[in-house]
Every structure is written in structure tokens, then in C-alpha cells.
Amino acid sequence: MAVDAQTVEKLAELARIAISEETIDEVSTRLGDVLQLVDQLQAVNTDGVEPMAHPLDEVQVLRKDEVTEPNRREEFLALAPQTEAGLYLVPKVID
Amino acid sequence: MHQLTIAEIVRGLRDRQFSSVEITSHLLERIQQLDGQYNSFITVTGDQALKEAAAADARLAEGNAHALCGVPIAHKDIFCTNGVRTSCGSKMLDNFVPPYDATVVDNFQQAGAVSLGKTNMDEFAMGSSNESSFYGPVKNPWDVQRVPGGSSGGSAAAVAARLVPGTTASDTGGSIRQPAALTGTTGLKPTYGRVSRWGMIAFASSLDQGGPITRTAEDAALMLSVMASSDKKDSTCLDRPAQDYTANLNDSIQGLKIGVPKEYFGEGLDSEIGARVQEALKEYEKLGAELVEISLPHTHLAVPAYYVIAPAEASANLSRFDGVRYGYRCENPADLRDLYMRSRGEGFGEEVKRRILVGSYALSAGYYDAYYNKAQQVRRLIKQDFVDAFSKVDVIMGPTAPNPAFKLGEKNADPVAMYLEDIYTIATNLAGLPGMSLPCGFAHNLPVGLQITGNYLDEARMLNVAHQFQQASDWHQKSAPTAE
């Protein structure tokens, strides 16, 4: 099953991943191979089968709506590539 | 000293045959001398390990230390470690030093275990060969021209090479059991939710599960007793008390019913591997177990269902790596879109990008029902196969991997062929069941793994069944030629 270059470009945009022009054919082929594998699912009769999102039928664990973690803002900001005045820095978004 | 199992180290420390500092120093020296040929570690924390070992010796001298106090282990680089780089095998996180410990890491620290460092892995745990790591491939100690399996290949190789007696690992589609099989080690993937995922970098959240890789089932029981806990920080972690998994290791397995799925012995299985697994099953009969042929009719759909569900969850989980808050950022981004696109394009490796794209495809408008919803329906059919089987048998056994360790680079050009290396392990993850792999012989002079699948939360029985086999055989004691 082939995936055309236009579809790959659309997926790359959705996933926000830059893909170079040189590799787009290879990516198309590999994606096609994977989608051919997963297309086997289409032949299965799943009428009336409830989709399974979680392997165990467990009750969701809940906790009280109260703060349990200390404020570690400085430690987490220190991990960022660029910060200023306690804020994350990114290239300007609005001209 | 490096040939000692965890259980033997525990006894040696208690009997004052050696100190934690002595065994820690010995293993650190061994890592320094030998790991160049295996590449099983990304980070070695020698100074910190020696401090932890000295503290453990002090606790041991007081006489009331936890069983694992002073025992050297290593953590897969998927578990966050406070103050120690946690890369997840990726350029994206090459510079990431978490300010917190994963719950699993914290549990081992509380128990007094000594961490020697962080083991190599497929990038973001995506792979079956440990060739997709940013830090280069891991080599199999049984033949350094071959892969150790993935994604916990570094953890498995480090144990097989006798660099450390036990490691933490994680299993999303077979990433503990498959490398354990390929390296002649014992690997245990617990029931989904038995071990906290808090601080374990997420790949596919409904499938990921942490567990140990060791040399023996007894050691796996010792490690699981520390790893398994309920955790309020992880709402998917089961609310069950900690358990002593060593308590039932010596129980008789007389009358045990072993389910043998006919689908696991068909086309695609290396004949020598099939023969070794059949011999192991005969050994179980000698121990008093009964073999029962069963059918898991949807087995052939596990790999396709997995390669919709896992990439779909991965595409969501990995969206957090955007070059803004932590991790890799591209040089001189022109605008925000360029920052996202290039940071992710340059920071992720090929396999990770491929899976994110597949996941984006499966979740995109127009394909959601045909792919994602369909895969989740098939997942329920797969789970029902196991529920039906466990109404007749106590455990299920078969091969862990269809082939022995393959040569480095052999399957790189064909991702689908690589995906099929997990064909016997993936269904267990989709169903959320516990599974183990233990050594059961050799094929083509390479280790073969026997897979045991247990019922939900039946890890104690699985470990008992594995331990009884290891009492009657010596495959788990065989040492890789490069690891003597």
C-alpha cells in the first residue's frame, strides 16, 4: 500500500515534524509497509465488540482536590532551553 | 564476585563475606573495563554508587536493613533519576537531568539498593533490537556481532555480561521478555498497573509496564517485591498492597495446568527454538505439570493491533517534546512553527518519527474509526481469548521470540520484519497480563527463551513456576563467553 508524498507532508505537518525532501520517498514507502500490516485488521468482524481502552476493569483512582506537590517552578524552568523573568522564551508569534 | 546472583549477594552481605562497597567497586571496575564492547550503559554513576554503598554498609551494620540493602542494580534510562541524566536513548533528552526520581527508583532507594547507572535502550523504547538508541547499538554478550533485543537491550546485556546482577526495564510490546530471551536472562513484565509508571517516560500509556531483568526467577521475585507498589501519583497504578513475591517460590507445581497455544508453534518459528521449548515443556511434565493444548485464535492480529494503538498513544505522549520547556531545541528558529518542526525533526530518530507519523495517521479525521477504534475492538477479542484460556489452565507457555539474536543491521531496512520479532509477546501487553521469559536452552549456539504468561496479578505463581524449572535445570547459570 503506497502512501503518497502529499499525505506524508500532511502527516508531518500534523505531527509538527520536519521531514527533508530527500527522505520523503523512503518515509512514504516505510509508512506504506506499516499501514499494509495494520490493514489486516479490516478483515476482522468486530460487530458489537466494545472497544477496549484499558486492559483491566478497575475503578478510577481518585484523590482529594488539594495540592500535594510543592512549588518547584525554578527547578523546572532551569530545564528549559531559554527563559526570561520566570517565563519560557520562544520566537515571536505575532508580528 | 560478578557471578553472584542477587540472592547470593544478599546472603553474602548479611554474612559479612564482603561489603556493599567491595562488590560495588568490583562491578564498577568491570563496567569500565568491559562495557566498551557491549555499550550497555549510557551513564555510569560511580561516585554516587560508592556513597550509596557506604550508606548501605552502615545500615547493614545496624542489623535492620531491607533485604536488598547494599545490592548493586542499574536502571533503564527510561526511569527518571534525580540529578542524573535521563535520556530515554534519545538526542531529544540528551541534556535532560530530572529534578525528581521515578517511583520505581525511589522504591529501590528506600530499600537501600545501590544504583550503578543508567542502561542503554531503543529510543523512547521503540524497537526490538536496541539499534535505535542515539548512543549507538548495544551488543549481545553471547555474540557481539548480534543484537541483544530491544528495547531493554542495555538492561539485558548488562545482566548477561555480569556487569550487574539485576536491572530495571520496561515492556510495551515485549521489551523485557524479548531481550531476556535473546541474552539468556530472566525478564518479568508484571500485570499492567502492578508497578507505578510515575517518572517512567511514557511511550504507549495503556501498554507500558516496568519490571526487572535478572539472572534467576528468585532474583526477579526479590526485585519485584520492591518495584511493585500502589502509587497515588499514578492513577493507572493498581491499588493493591506490596507483596513478598519470594514467599511461594518453593511451592510444588504438581498438577499445574500449562496451556500450550497451538498458534505459537506454526509458521515463522525457528525449528530449533521450537524444539528447545518443547523440551522445556517435557521437563515441566516431569515436575508433575499437565500440558493442555489451547487456542488463542486472534494471535495473528496482535501485531497489527499493536502497531495502531502504540503509535497512536506515542504520537500523543511525544507531543510534549516541542523544544520549549525542556529537551533539545534547534538552532536559530525562524518562528514558533519552525521551532517545533525542526526541534522534533532533528531531535527524534527515524523509528520514533515513523511511529509518530503512523499514530497521527491512525488518529486523523477519516481514519480514526477504521484504524484506532478497530484496533481497540480487536484488543478486546485478544483479551477474551486469554480469559477463555485461563478458565481451563493456570499458566500459558510458548516461545518468547521466533528467532535467536540476529545480526546487527540485519533487519534495519525492513521495519515490519523487525516488528514480527515481538509476535509472541505483544498480545500479553494488549491484554494487560503478566509475562516472563526464562532461559531454556540454545539454538544455533544462542540463548532461547521460554515465555510464561500468567493470569492477572498472578506474578507469584508465575515466579514459582519459573523457579521450579530453574531448580531442575541449569540454563540460567550459563554464562556468555565474553562475560566469564
TrEMBL record, chain A:
<dbReference type="Pfam" id="PF02686">
    <property type="entry name" value="GatC"/>
</dbReference>
<dbReference type="InterPro" id="IPR003837">
    <property type="entry name" value="GatC"/>
</dbReference>
<keyword id="KW-0547">Nucleotide-binding</keyword>
<dbReference type="GO" id="GO:0006412">
    <property type="term" value="P:translation"/>
</dbReference>
<dbReference type="GO" id="GO:0006450">
    <property type="term" value="P:regulation of translational fidelity"/>
</dbReference>
<keyword id="KW-0648">Protein biosynthesis</keyword>
<dbReference type="GO" id="GO:0070681">
    <property type="term" value="P:glutaminyl-tRNAGln biosynthesis via transamidation"/>
</dbReference>
<keyword id="KW-0067">ATP-binding</keyword>
<dbReference type="GO" id="GO:0050567">
    <property type="term" value="F:glutaminyl-tRNA synthase (glutamine-hydrolyzing) activity"/>
</dbReference>
<keyword id="KW-0436">Ligase</keyword>
<comment type="function">
    <text>Allows the formation of correctly charged Asn-tRNA(Asn) or Gln-tRNA(Gln) through the transamidation of misacylated Asp-tRNA(Asn) or Glu-tRNA(Gln) in organisms which lack either or both of asparaginyl-tRNA or glutaminyl-tRNA synthetases. The reaction takes place in the presence of glutamine and ATP through an activated phospho-Asp-tRNA(Asn) or phospho-Glu-tRNA(Gln).</text>
</comment>
<protein>
    <recommendedName>
        <fullName>Aspartyl/glutamyl-tRNA(Asn/Gln) amidotransferase subunit C</fullName>
        <ecNumber>6.3.5.-</ecNumber>
    </recommendedName>
</protein>
<dbReference type="GO" id="GO:0005524">
    <property type="term" value="F:ATP binding"/>
</dbReference>
<comment type="subunit">
    <text>Heterotrimer of A, B and C subunits.</text>
</comment>
<dbReference type="InterPro" id="IPR036113">
    <property type="entry name" value="Asp/Glu-ADT_sf_sub_c"/>
</dbReference>
<comment type="similarity">
    <text>Belongs to the GatC family.</text>
</comment>
TrEMBL record, chain B:
<keyword id="KW-0648">Protein biosynthesis</keyword>
<comment type="function">
    <text>Allows the formation of correctly charged Gln-tRNA(Gln) through the transamidation of misacylated Glu-tRNA(Gln) in organisms which lack glutaminyl-tRNA synthetase. The reaction takes place in the presence of glutamine and ATP through an activated gamma-phospho-Glu-tRNA(Gln).</text>
</comment>
<dbReference type="InterPro" id="IPR000120">
    <property type="entry name" value="Amidase"/>
</dbReference>
<keyword id="KW-0436">Ligase</keyword>
<feature type="active site" description="Charge relay system">
    <location>
        <position position="76"/>
    </location>
</feature>
<comment type="subunit">
    <text>Heterotrimer of A, B and C subunits.</text>
</comment>
<feature type="active site" description="Acyl-ester intermediate">
    <location>
        <position position="175"/>
    </location>
</feature>
<protein>
    <recommendedName>
        <fullName>Glutamyl-tRNA(Gln) amidotransferase subunit A</fullName>
        <ecNumber>6.3.5.7</ecNumber>
    </recommendedName>
</protein>
<dbReference type="GO" id="GO:0006412">
    <property type="term" value="P:translation"/>
</dbReference>
<keyword id="KW-0547">Nucleotide-binding</keyword>
<comment type="similarity">
    <text>Belongs to the amidase family. GatA subfamily.</text>
</comment>
<dbReference type="InterPro" id="IPR020556">
    <property type="entry name" value="Amidase_CS"/>
</dbReference>
<feature type="active site" description="Charge relay system">
    <location>
        <position position="151"/>
    </location>
</feature>
<keyword id="KW-0067">ATP-binding</keyword>
<dbReference type="InterPro" id="IPR036928">
    <property type="entry name" value="AS_sf"/>
</dbReference>
<dbReference type="InterPro" id="IPR023631">
    <property type="entry name" value="Amidase_dom"/>
</dbReference>
<dbReference type="GO" id="GO:0050567">
    <property type="term" value="F:glutaminyl-tRNA synthase (glutamine-hydrolyzing) activity"/>
</dbReference>
<dbReference type="GO" id="GO:0005524">
    <property type="term" value="F:ATP binding"/>
</dbReference>
<dbReference type="Pfam" id="PF01425">
    <property type="entry name" value="Amidase"/>
</dbReference>
<feature type="domain" description="Amidase">
    <location>
        <begin position="22"/>
        <end position="463"/>
    </location>
</feature>
<dbReference type="GO" id="GO:0030956">
    <property type="term" value="C:glutamyl-tRNA(Gln) amidotransferase complex"/>
</dbReference>
<dbReference type="InterPro" id="IPR004412">
    <property type="entry name" value="GatA"/>
</dbReference>
